[in-house]
Structure formats: C-alpha cells, structure tokens
# Entry
Amino acid sequence: MTEWTVYLSGEIHTDWRERITEGAKAAGLPIAFTAPVTDHAASDDCGVEILGAEPDPVWHDRKGASVNAIRTRTLIEKADVVVVRFGEKYKQAAFDAGYAAALGKPLIVNHAPEHRHPLKEVDAAALAVCETPEQVVDILSYVITGKLPGR
# Structure
C-alpha cells in the first residue's frame, strides 16, 4: 500500500494530533504525518530569534509568520490530505484551510458543533467536516483502504 502524507494543521493546546497519529498507527494505516511547529513560543519568536529583534509587536509577529510560512506552505503543498482542527481559541489555521483548498488538496475540517456558523465558509471548502479526531482516523482509514472501519 502506498504511503500517504497527511498535514495536521490547527490548534496546539489539546492532544488531537496524538489521537489521530495513534489511531492511524493502531489501524495500520500507511501515513506519514507532518505539522507546523507546535512549540508556541518557538513559533511566535522564530523570526526575531533568527533575523533580529523588532521593537514593534506587529513586525515581531510578521517575521515569525513569514518564517513559519516557509514550513507551512511547503508541507501543505507536499501533502496528499490536509486536516485542519479548530479549537476554542486561535483560528489562524483558517488560512491553512484556504491555502489547501486553493491548491485543490483534499481537506478534512475538525471542530466542535458550536463553530459551525463562524466556520461555514471553511466547512464549505472541505470534503469532510467532523467533530472528533477519531472521525478523522475513520475517514483516513476509509479513503486509504476502501473499507469501512470495523468491517
């Protein structure tokens, strides 16, 4: 079976990535997972740590976002599937979802029901919208093997 590359974008404050990677491993799925830098401080400060300090917070953030975009864009472009998780805070991953959609990448969106309305445009661009990381694993299992999980 061919190995798939799945990019896991989105919030970094819960264990959703681990639940997906562990679930895929338990299911024996041939997946290589990639992701943005999930060390919040490193992600925020990479630009100024590498390229020099910025007294204005706007340019501090801009440097970090630009450096992080090198990784994000490269890994999304290489991905077979992009999964975007929206949590309670921080919706920056909406850009990743839009970028993946613009590239024609299959997009799976994962969020709680209360986010349906604010994310309706993102959901409309997705091929699947689910509420749990386990549903993401089931979708990946089905699309890779062609079999419904548990059958």
The first helix runs from residue 16 to 26.
